[in-house]
Amino acid sequence: MADTYWLKQTAKPLFPDLHWSRPENKRQAGKLLVVGGNAHGFAAPATAYGAALKAGIGSARVLLPDKLQKTLSKLMPEAEFAPSTLSGSFSQKALAQLLDSAQWADGVLLAGDFGHNSETAILLDSFLDKYEGQVTVAQDGLDYFLGRNSPLIERADTLGVIDLGKLQKLAKHNRPATPVLHSMMLADLVEILHDWTTGNSGQIITRHADHFIVASCGQVSTTATAQTSSWQIELAAYASVWWLQQPNRPFEALSTSLFEGTK
Fold this sequence. Notes:
The protein is of the alpha/beta class. The protein has helices spanning about 15-20, 45-55, 70, 95-105, 120-130, 150-155, 165-175, 185-200, 230-245, 250-260; strands at about 5-10, 30-35, 60-65, 80, 105-110, 135, 160, 205-210, 210-215, 220-225. It is globular and about 55 Å long. The two termini are about 30 Å apart.
């Protein structure tokens, strides 16, 4: 197996120059919109917001369903609220506000806790269709995009931070010919992701055993980790921040975000 597309990140970052080129002024460190939550839970967007600040974002906002406004307006002054369904998830009517808030940002993180709602599904699908900027999708936000012709694979400037179980479902409906299996060796998964992202626009961060994996435009990096706790939301925030700060070097930015986010 050729190593030309597989880079291994160990005790030192693969791309140390990215640290020197990061914005020093907070005003130049980018703007991130975090979206998520429903009437019964908002841990994912709250966690993502905190992680984005830790990762060095210049400015961040959170967009939540308005069913949470009475509860959170004083606790989260940085939050904005968009129309929700009777059950407390985002409704289709939230699209205009979501697009408007996204235009303010340099990147959008669909952080999760959306619940499973048909109106939210239509909203998120419409958003990815109409919005042309950087979007990172994590947690249950991924569940809306695991079918055929997924924007996680085919849409430009899209990153899925996805566990191996959901990656299996995504692969089942969107190539590759070789199935993704929990039992496969790291090298085999690396080769699949290399082939998959060579012919598609979407980017992937996943985890296999004790390695995090980045796949972007056919390039793959692996980062060893001993982390055993929940990882998707915080790493999705780190990835979003580093990527929007280095929009012309996505592979390098995402690989570096894993190094920084797993310290």
